[in-house]
Amino acid sequence: MLSSTQSIGTLLFDWDGTLADSARSSFLTFQKALRAVGVEFTEDHFNEHFTPDWHRMYEAVGLDADQWLAADAAWKEHYPCVTYALVSGAHETLTCLRGRGYRLGVVTSGSQWRLDPEIAEYGLDGVFDVVICNEHVKQRKPHPEGLLKARDLLGCDSGSCAYVGDVPEDILAGKNAEMCTVGVRSGYPTSHKLQASAPDLYLESISELLSHFPAR
Question: How far apart are the first and last CA of the chain?
């Protein structure tokens, strides 16, 4: 459990699961994308193999590497299979944290082609000081590249940053970047493993951040 957050001035967030309630849409889209390249993908597969690095998931269900680009294209074609909103309390929490003087950012494995319109659609224009998507990095989480890039763009140090995520890869990425780590339970299947990855702070809902990060 984190004893103090006084040194934290920047909060970086994962997107899917942490801020956007996209788990159901993600599963259905992967199912359609993989079906398009001849692989049946069940909810059990999603529960067992989900990872923010979706090429590792393709590998786990036996998709040959030469089919990955075709699966990616099918995923983009079908997304989103169902509409979704921000997780409960996310908008209010972000705007409140912004008002309390924190700098905010997003570091996600998601793609910029969908993040930019989603941020606008959810009324979050101007809330984030930096947004790092998979197009901006070479290494995916749990590698810390995206977090370190966000940190450097903001001109701060790791000790003044916290990374908020919903799956173990997020917590490992934060630890690898030497940042404070906050785990928030989500609807993604590996989120139940969060506590085992030993975040500095574990929360059941995003709104609980407000109890730990007071006005600066």
Answer: 21
195/176 same-domain check: yes
Which of 133, 31, 134 has the alpha carbon at shortest distance from 79?
31
Q: What are phi and psi of 25, to 5 degrees?
A: -60, -40
Q: Are residues 134 and 196 in the same domain?
A: yes
Residues 6+ apart with CB under 8 A from 82: 24, 25, 28
Tens-level pLDDT at each residue, the chain (216 residues): 455 688 999 999 999 999 999 999 999 999 999 999 999 999 999 999 999 999 999 999 999 999 999 999 999 999 988 999 999 999 999 999 999 999 999 999 999 999 999 999 999 999 999 999 999 999 999 999 999 999 999 999 999 999 999 999 999 999 999 999 999 999 999 999 999 999 999 999 999 999 999 998
As a whole number of angstroms, the distance between CA 174 and CA 145 comes to: 10
Asked if residue 94 and residue 18 are part of one domain, the reply reads yes
Tally of domains in the chain: 2
Same domain, 93 and 194: yes
- Quote the domain boundaries for residue 60: 23-78
Distance between CA atoms of 118 and 115, rounded to whole angstroms? 5
Query: Same domain for 92 and 198?
Result: yes
| CA atoms 203, 206, 208, 213: torsion sign | positive
